[in-house]
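Table S4 entry, Succinate dehydrogenase.
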Amino acid sequence: MRPSKARPRAAIAAKTLRTDKWRTPPLTIGAILLLFIVYSTVRLFMGRYYVVGDYGYLTPLYSPCLFKDCVPAASHFGQPLPAMPFFIPLGAIVFPVVAGFRLTCYYYRKAYYRSLWLSPQACAVQEPHKKYTGETRFPLILQNSHRFFFYLAAVVLAINVWDALHTFRGADGHFGMGLGTLIIWINVLALAGYTASCHACRHAFGGKLKHFSKHPLRYRMWVLISKLNPKHGFYAMVSLWTVMATDFYIMAVSAGWFSDLRFFN
C-alpha cells in the first residue's frame, strides 16, 4: 500500500480565536517598561538633583558616584575616576550592570518578548515573526550572561544597602530619620527581593550540589530562595516603581520643591 500523504495544516485566517482581552497584559507591561526606560534615561542625563547631602539621601540611579564631577556628598566611595564629558552620565558605572541584569532576567525576557517584540503577545496568539531561532544566535545568545550579571547586581545591592545606612543621619551629623529614609529602605527591600528571588541566585546556592545533607546551610538558603522564586515577577515590577519613586523623591527634595518630612533630627 502506498503511504498516505500528510495532511496540510489548517488555514486559519484569524490571528487567534481568543475572545478575552488578551492584549491588555502585554500593553500594560510594555507601557510600564517604556515609562521606566524614558524616566531613567532623562534622569541619568540630567546630571543634578540626585543627592540630599544634609540627610545622606542618594538616588540609586547615580550610585556609586565615583567621578570627580560628582557632588562630594554623593561620593560614599570617594572619587577615583576623572570627570567625564557631558555625554557620559554620572550613573554610567552602575546602569549597564542593572540594565544587563534586568534585560537578561527570565521574567523580563517574557515581559518584553511579549509586549515589545510581540513574540508572541499571548498564549495561543500567532506571532508576526516568520523565523524563530530561539536564543542561539546574536544578539539573543547574550541572554546566557544572566548569571554573570547576577553577581554584579549583588554587588550593586550591597552598595545600595551601604547608601541606605547613610540615611540615618540628621542635619547636625547625629542620628536622624525622615520620610526619605523609609522610601530608600523600601526600595532596598524591593531590590533585595528581586535579586534574592532570581533563578541565578537559587542556582548559585543549590544548583550544583549533589548532596544537600553535606551542605545544610546552603540547603536552607536554597529552600528560602525557592520560596521567593515564584514571586520573582512581582518583585521585578515592584522594584521598577520603587526605584522611580525613590529617585523622584530625592530629586524633589534636592530641587527644593518640598522639604523632607523629618521624624527624628
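The radius of gyration is 23 Å.
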